[in-house]
C-alpha cells in the first residue's frame, strides 16, 4: 500500500502577514455577501480555534445561526509548523443532531484542506441527504490543493489574525480586499 505525504503549506519565510482589523472587517463583509449571493444559508459552522470568530461574525451578518466544532491539525501553533495530515475533530455535545439546507463551513485559513475535509467527514452523519456544504476561509495558502468556495487572500507565508498575539517580528499587513476569490 502506497501512502502519500500530506500536502505542504508554502512558507517563503520572508515575512509574516498581518490581517488588520480593517482588512478583516472588509473580508467578512465580502465573504458574507458572496455566500449570500449563491443562495439561502441555513447554518454557519465555525472550525475552532481560528474559524470560530469569523463564523460567528458571518452568521450575524447573514442573520442565521452559528455553531462550532473543534479541530486540531498541528501539534503546536508555532510559526512555520507544517501540516501533519492528521486532524482530530471534536463535535460538542450541544451541536445540532441534524443539519439541512446550505451550510457554510468557516475557518481562518485553508492551509492544506485537510481540516475542511476532516470536519465535513465528521459531520456527514448529521447532514440531511440534500445538504450543501460550502467552505469559506479568510486565507488560502498557495500550497493547498483544496480551494474553498470563497476566500479573501492567497498567502505564501505565515499569517497572524486580529485575535492572535503578535510575534516579535516584522509584520506585513495584507491589503484590504476589494474582491473575493473563488475557484
Residues in helices, as a percent range: 10-25%
Strand content: 25-35%
Low-confidence stretches: none
Supply Rg.
16 Å
Account of the protein in words:
It is a single chain. With 183 residues, the chain is of the alpha/beta class. The chain has a single domain (16-173), classed as Rossmann fold. It has helices at 21-37, 52-62, 114-123, and strands at 16-18, 43-48, 66-72, 88-90, 102-110, 132-141, 150-155, 158-160, 171-173. It has a six-stranded mixed sheet. A three-stranded parallel sheet has the order 8-1-9, with no helix packed on it. Strand 5, helix 3 and strand 6 (132-141) form a beta-alpha-beta unit. The longest helix is centred in the N-terminal third of the chain and has 17 residues, at 21-37. It is globular and about 45 Å long. The model has no long low-confidence stretch (mean pLDDT 90).
Condensed summary:
Helices cover 21% and strands 27% of the residues.
Protein topology:
Elements: E1 16-18, H1 21-37, E2 43-48, H2 52-62, E3 66-72, E4 88-90, E5 102-110, H3 114-123, E6 132-141, E7 150-155, E8 158-160, E9 171-173
Parallel strand pairs: 1-8, 1-9, 2-3, 2-5, 5-6, 6-7
Antiparallel strand pairs: 3-4
Keywords for this entry:
183 residues, alpha/beta, Rossmann fold, six-stranded mixed beta sheet, three-stranded parallel beta sheet, 27% strand, globular
